[in-house]
Amino acid sequence: MPSGFMQFADKYLMWKEGPMIWGSDVAILLVSIGIVFALTYFHKWKWLWREWITTVDHKKIGIMYLICALLMLFRGGADAELLRTQLAIPNNHFLSAEHYDQIFTTHGTIMILFMAMPFIFALFNIVVPLQIGARDVAFPYLNAISFWLFFFAAMLFNLSFVFGGSPDASWVSYPPLSELGFDPGPGENYYLLALQITGIGSIATGINFLATIFKMRAPGMKLMHMPLFTWSTVAACVVIIFAFPALAIAIALLTLDRIFGTHFFTILHGGNPMMFVNLFWVWGHPEVYIVVLPAFGVYSEVVATFARKRIFGYSSMVASLMLISVISYFVWAHHFFTMGAGADVNTFFAVASMLVGIPTGVKVFNWLFTMYRGRIRMTLPMLWTIAFVPCFAIGGATGIMLAAAPADYQYHNSYFLIAHFHQVLIGGVVFGMLAGMYYWWPKMFGFKLDERLGRWAFWFFNIGFYVCFMPQYALGFMGMQRRMYTYPADMGWNTLNLISTIGAYIMAIGFVFIVIQVLYSVKYGERDLTGDPWDGRTLEWSLPSPAPHYNFAVIPTVTSRDVWWELKEQGRTDELKPKAEDIKPIHMPKNSARPFLMGLAFFVAGFGFVFDLLWLGFLGLAGVVACLIARALEYNDDYHIPVHEVVETEATLGRLG
Amino acid sequence: MKTGHSPRRAKSLTFLSAALLVLFATGCGRQYMVLDPAGPVGREELHLIVMSAILVGIVIIPVLILLFYIVWRYRDKPGNTAPYTPKWSESKGLEVVWWGIPIVIVGVLGAFTAKTTFALTKPPAESADVTPITIQVTSLDWKWLFQYPGQGIATANYAAIPTGVPIQFELTSDAPMNSFWVPQLGGQEYTMPGMAMRLWLEADKAGTYYGHGANFTGAGFAHMDFNVIATSDSNFQAWVKQVKASSPALTKAGYAQLKQPSVIGTKSYSSFPPGLFNGTIWADGGQYMPNMMSQTGSPLKAGLNTNSMGVGSGDSMSGMSNMTNMSAMSSTGTSSSQK
What we know:
The complex is a heterodimer.
Chain A: H1 2-13, H2 19-41, H3 45-53, H4 58-87, H5 97-132, H6 140-159, H7 187-215, H8 228-260, H9 273-306, H10 314-327, H11 343-371, H12 380-403, H13 405-411, H14 415-445, H15 451-477, H16 494-524, H17 563-569, E1 586-589, H18 594-610, H19 614-632, E2 638-641, H20 643-652
Antiparallel strand pairs in A: 1-2
Helix pairs in contact in A: 4-5, 4-6, 4-16, 5-6, 5-7, 5-9, 5-14, 6-7, 6-18, 7-8, 7-18, 8-9, 8-10, 9-11, 9-14, 10-11, 11-12, 12-14, 12-15, 14-15, 15-16, 18-19
Chain B: H1 2-27, H2 40-73, H3 92-119, E1 133-140, E2 143-148, E3 153-156, E4 158-162, E5 167-173, E6 178-182, E7 186-191, E8 195-201, E9 207-213, E10 225-231, H4 233-246, H5 252-259, E11 267-269, H6 276-283, E12 287-288, H7 317-332
Parallel strand pairs in B: 1-5, 4-10, 8-12
Antiparallel strand pairs in B: 1-2, 2-3, 3-11, 5-8, 6-7, 6-9, 9-10
């Protein structure tokens, strides 16, 4: 029996791999025990179940997305620090090749799919219904399903680290490297199943928010009255709906190859790996626009608010968002200019890729001219927005350089490329998400995040960023390729790599400051009693912070852009305060445990297929089907909040007009 | 005092500029391989890199200056007298400017890109009258096999080439896809299982040029470096003779062993099994880049029915017709560029 256990421990728990695994096991165990203990000790189980796990409230779902995104930022960031530590000096043996390969794979996958995606979904959820004057999203139940699919997919993906082994074929997972013949372990299965599950949730979110924005705007709010964050959500959702199915197909076929022995992408038996590469990037490139478009939306809100000025060139801003989302489908082949597609194809995709720079450049100029002749307040959201401009400008410039196909023959897969995409993804997406988090934090929680600690975080993170990534452009020109776990000492790469690693550590300090800032502010942060801490312009700032469960006691009528700002200017803010006689019973969706259970069923199915336990896989899928059937037979899924309850809540908030 | 300072300042200035020059010279020397090309292909790509950097600079430098100016000038502090126009939010004129300028720049850069892209599919124009040499490259786990069909020899993890001669690298992989990159000679091209790709490179200076796989292929990937040694034509011929005389032959069994995942040093082979390269491509799918091998005047030109990328595979009817062509190729494959 003990020998049986040791075999299991070696094969699945990977205990022979040493202290890093043991440490993680202990940490996971302690944290789990701690959470269970705390929930029991403070009698919070019921609260957790009623208020969070079964909730269909967009605000709470948004907060859960945000917490997960920050946790995943920590995980992906820890991966990054390990990678940079390994590369600090040549011929390093801090990590083995196998471990390095696993860690860069999980770093990339987590940062894109389990950090950036939930971060944008967090903001969609928290902001969009409030900005358009809605009480929830169009399909609140589906919204909860999306979240739990993401949550359990992230769990499944992270489980690989301590159970069975992480994927190691990189986040793009090109076959044939990712086929069974070259990559037999369960790691790659984890990647495929986790992405499949979270991808289903993402498609549903795209549909949900598009429907919400098109169907549930407050009366009077025309499309061209919508705040730009809402517009950016439209653009991102359109891209999600068209791009994510391509990923779903690509990884479904690869899963069939690995689990059921088909030959879609194998080398032999007529498989074609090139097909996967195409499908992957048909999703993969639009994906980076999916995550950056909402960041553009955040910048637009933040710039206008903190320059105290109307956004410059609103129509151009809308047009450029939509143009980017359309052009994003015509650029995917620039990820493989070097795969011999031919000069004509390469030229087409090169020029298309450069075209993206035009609407993006227009946006930058419009942000600049929003600040021009404004009054710029240097709050945390504004600091991150201002830091975004030079970072993204340089990243965009190197992007255009990369788009010139023959030049790309020299950059492809080199550190020049690594520096470029980190610059646009961190400078564009992460800066934007942090700006958005700081900006809407009071709306979510009713207090501001501490300014002083936030500035420390800002400067550490920014300086660390340039120290980390600028040397990597030079390393690219020096011929250093990505995904090398080590390098010889005589290439002249040593100094720049060491500098880059130091930069990564400085960024980590910045992240630690954000953590301290959040913890400190929970207790000492400035409370927001007005609901409008930044002197905002859009509808969400007309509500108390945090907004009541039903958001708007009476749905407002909107007659212009920046409606809250206009009302403030004209001294008509009282018009948005509900009058007791106008309040009617509010129709709301009921909480449900089923989205959570369905996520759990998907998790079981995913876990089964990862380990080729088909019975368990199909059992999980049966659970999914059972949830679907139960939902189809459910008739009693809504309720009305009675008038007196709404009146009471509004009165307590001091808002009754 | 003043006159005493001047020469010293001049001296330190000379020193400074000399130091900068040294820094620049070494900085853009071998270490910065991409910026120090040793052949026409790398140079053409460097031109495009420089051109694109200048063009994007035209946009981003004003952006950076504008940003710092605007943020400083319009910051919210008591007593700031800069104008404040909270409702000013439209200007057709300005917007035409910043829609227009990027369009012009993309137009210019796009034109140069197109020109270079098409140019690089052909042998370098400088040596158009020189007969090219073909080297067939196979990436394996985790090593590079170079076959010289014209010379009848093969090497692993290094390749010798004559200077001033266009080299047609035919690329494939008998392992996960990799990318063949010799930065000082020029940009890379993927090696893909079941496909034949082509990359033209040329060295015009003798030297040893670092090369490396550029696409991740698993645990041994970091060790997939190789050197390309460019020498004069006579040295190259001497080297070929020496390899033929003193190295072992690469047998089918030897190739099967090479295919096993491992990291090895450099190897030389006096011969290789006929049709090995094309046989490998065919076994894995048999796709050829459009017009591949038709421009060097290869004797295969008539027989080879090229199959465009991404369509067709071993199971289809077109595959059958390729199969016929394939056998023709295998028999003559070893002499494909002896002309």
